[in-house]
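Work Package 4 report. The design task specified in the project plan requires that, given a folded chain encoded as structure tokens, an amino acid be chosen for each position. We show below one input record used in the internal validation round.
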């Protein structure tokens, strides 16, 4: 993302400058990732689509486990804003969250009709003697990634801390669950709300 904390940077101009450099080198796949807002993103995706119609563009946002970006914007609102005028081929989430929390976010997001891309971190960081480590279990990561595919994600990858082993096990998990992923129907927002309300505590309340 283009950082613009002071508001004195022309974000779109920066995006276009960088984009043109890559287009000149023959790049046809673009990933705008770890974004906290949509500043310049709708415009740059439209620019790429006009300049290079065959390009494939992914726009990905970084949000906390509660669904808010560091700018205080909900992931659902970021997606909705991009859909109003942006021309990205896929929208998604990356960084900050580990696989389990990103899976929860994916299940809560309305992504019908869009290509969903998810790239979680390999767990959460631990800092030892000024070095940052991600000690999330690759096997667990892969299992959660397969669940993301079942939840409707079409593009899967990894962000901070992921290793070739994480990706190898993810590929194996996806290959082993191909039929289940295809067969599982997407749940509507109403269904998700009804399912989340079905808890032991809630049932006891209903029973008096």
């Amino acid at each position: 993302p283009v950082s613009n904390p002071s508001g004195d940077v022309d974000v779109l101009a920066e995006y276009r400058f960088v984009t043109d450099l890559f287009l000149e080198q023959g790049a046809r796949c673009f990933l705008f990732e770890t974004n906290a807002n949509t500043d310049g993103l709708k415009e740059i995706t439209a620019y790429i689509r006009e300049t290079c119609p065959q390009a494939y563009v992914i726009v990905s946002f970084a949000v906390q486990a509660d669904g808010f970006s560091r700018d205080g914007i909900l992931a659902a609102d970021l997606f909705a804003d991009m859909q109003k005028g942006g021309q990205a081929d896929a929208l998604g989430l990356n960084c900050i969250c580990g696989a389990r929390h990103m899976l929860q976010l994916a299940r809560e997001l309305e992504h019908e009709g869009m290509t969903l891309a998810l790239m979680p971190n390999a767990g959460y960081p631990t800092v030892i003697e000024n070095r940052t480590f991600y000690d999330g279990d690759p096997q667990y990561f892969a299992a959660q990634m397969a669940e993301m595919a079942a939840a409707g994600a079409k593009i899967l990858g990894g962000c901070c801390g992921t290793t070739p082993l994480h990706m190898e096990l993810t590929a194996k998990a996806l290959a082993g669950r191909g039929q289940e992923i295809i067969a599982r129907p997407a749940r509507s927002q109403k269904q998700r709300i009804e399912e989340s309300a079905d808890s032991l505590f809630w049932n006891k309340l209903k029973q008096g």
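Confidence is low (pLDDT under 50) at residues 179-190. Validation will be extended to a larger panel in the next phase.
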